[in-house]
Amino acid sequence: MNLNNTVGKQTTSASASSNKFTIKGDLHTYRFCDEVWTLIIKNGVLKLENGNLSAEDAENASSENPDLELKCDKLRIVACSAKKQGD
C-alpha cells in the first residue's frame, strides 16, 4: 500500500469530520526553528469531543459522557506550515 495514498485518505476523513479535539496542560518548552514549531506539554489532557467515535472507543467511553479523554505525562507536538504545490 502506498503511504501517500493512506495519508491522503486520512486527511480527507479528517476534513469531513465534525469532531473537536482539545489539548490542555502545562507548556514546558516551545521552539520555532526552520519553519517548524515544537511544543512540549507536561501533564497533558487530550479530549475528543462530539464524538463520531469508533466502536472500540465508544465502549471505553462512559454512557453519561461520550467524550474520550486521554491523560499523559509528556506530550510533544511538532507542526509545520502546509505549503500548496507550486509555492
Polypeptide structure, described:
Residues 24-82 form the Transcription initiation factor IIA gamma subunit C-terminal domain. It comes from Hanseniaspora valbyensis NRRL Y-1626. One of its GO terms (biological process) is transcription initiation at RNA polymerase II promoter. This is Transcription initiation factor IIA gamma subunit C-terminal domain-containing protein. With 87 residues, the protein is an alpha+beta fold. It has a single domain, classed as TATA box binding Protein, subunit D, domain 2 (Roll), CATH 2.30.18.10. The chain contains 2 helices and 3 strands; from the N terminus they run H-E-E-H-E. Strands 1-2-3 form a 3-stranded antiparallel β-sheet. It is flat and about 45 Å long. The two termini are 29 Å apart. The model has no long low-confidence stretch (mean pLDDT 76).
- Distance between the ends: 29 Å
Radius of gyration: 16 Å
CATH superfamily: Transcription factor IIA (TFIIA), beta-barrel domain
Treating each run of at least 4 consecutive H or I residues as one helix, how many helices? 2
CATH first level: which class? Mainly Beta
Assign the CATH architecture.
Roll
Strand content: over 45%
The parts where pLDDT drops under 50 for at least 5 residues are none
Strands, total number: 3
Organism: Hanseniaspora valbyensis NRRL Y-1626
GO biological process, one term: transcription initiation at RNA polymerase II promoter
Protein name: Transcription initiation factor IIA gamma subunit C-terminal domain-containing protein
Domain Transcription initiation factor IIA gamma subunit C-terminal: 24-82
